[in-house]
What we know:
This protein is an alpha+beta fold. It has helices at 66-71, 75-83, and strands at residues 2-5, 9-11, 14-23, 27-36, 44-45. Strands 1, 2, 3, 4 and 5 form a 5-stranded antiparallel sheet that branches. The longest helix is centred in the C-terminal third of the chain and has 9 residues, at 75-83. The protein is globular and about 35 Å long.
Amino acid sequence: MNHYESIPARIGKHFWRIIVYSHPSYGRCTEYQFKRDDDYDCWHEDKRWPSYNSNDGMYMGCPKSIAAKVYYPNEAAIKAALNS
């Protein structure tokens, strides 16, 4: 169950969103998801992004504009969903 889903933002040829979901072990967590322009509603985990690298610091190989276009515009709602 998702507790929050941001409005998708276009970055290049893809749409990105952030969700807040319940993890069975860790509680509420966030995850970026992406889909191609022509996908109907087929969202993919950020881990499936071709350049994904969990050791790559802040962006993990995802587009560098992801924070400005997806996280910061939704920051208040994300924090509220994580803390509710």
